[in-house]
Amino acid sequence: KKLTLLREMLAGCGAGTCQVIVTTPMEMLKIQLQDAGRIAAQKKLMAAQAQLSSSPVAGAAEPAVETRTTAMQITRELLRSKGIAGLYKGLGATLLRDVPFSIVYFPLFANLNKLGQKDPSVKAPFYVSFLSGCVAGSTAAVAVNPCDVIKTRLQSLQRGVNEDTYSGILDCTKKIWQKEGPMAFLKGAYCRALVIAPLFGIAQVVYFIGIAEFLLDMLPKHRA
C-alpha cells in the first residue's frame, strides 16, 4: 500500500528520533576528540609565543605538555561529572538536525527511486537507487546544515581563547548570526554533502538490491 507524503514524513520523523537516541553519545565523543587536537595546537602556539615574548608574565609561562585525549577518558570524565546526561549534551540540537534530515531524506529518496521503476512491482535498477540516495542525502544534508553548525558548537566542551560559550540553541543562533553573519550557518555544507551523498547512495543500493537479505539467507537456519 502506497504511503501518502505525510505518512512518509512521519515515518522519517520516527526513524530520525530513534537514530538520535542511539548515536548522540558517539557524536558527542567524536566532537570532543576533534576539538582536543585543535585546543592542544592552540595552547602549544600560545606557549611558544609566550617564550618569545620579553614580558615578565609571559616569560614565566611554562611550555604546554602535550597529552593525548582518548574517547574512554572523555567518557569517564563526563560520567563522573555530569552522569548520563553529559553524554547527551546537545540532544535538542541533534534532534533539530537529524529529525528534519530524515523527514526530507526518506520521502525524497522514495519518490526519486520510483521514477526509475518501470513497473511498481519491480525494483528500480541499482544505479537509480544509488543516484536517488546521493541526491536525497546531499539535499537533506545541506537543508539542515545550520542545525548541524549549532549542534557542533553546543557539544564542544573545550573552548579556545576568545571563543564564545552558549547557554542554549537560541543563544547560540543569536551569537553566530551577530558575530559571524548568516553565511556561518552554511559552513561545512559542501563537505557534508560530499560525505552524505555516497554514504546514503551506497546504503540504499545495498538495501534495495537485497545484499543484506542474501547474506542472511546464507546463514545456517536453526530448526524449531
TrEMBL record:
Pfam families: Mito_carr
GO biological-process terms attached to the record: malate-aspartate shuttle
Membrane topology, as annotated: Multi-pass membrane protein
GO molecular function: L-aspartate transmembrane transporter activity; L-glutamate transmembrane transporter activity
Recorded GO CC terms: mitochondrial inner membrane
Statement: the UniProt record of this protein carries the keyword Mitochondrion: yes
Keyword Repeat appears in the UniProt entry: no
Subcellular location: Mitochondrion inner membrane
Gene3D superfamilies reported in the protein's UniProt record: Mitochondrial carrier domain
Entry's transmembrane regions: 193-216
Classification via PANTHER family: MITOCHONDRIAL 2-OXODICARBOXYLATE CARRIER 1-RELATED, MITOCHONDRIAL GLUTAMATE CARRIER 1
Protein known as: GHC1 protein
Organism: Aegotheles bennettii
The encoding gene: Slc25a22
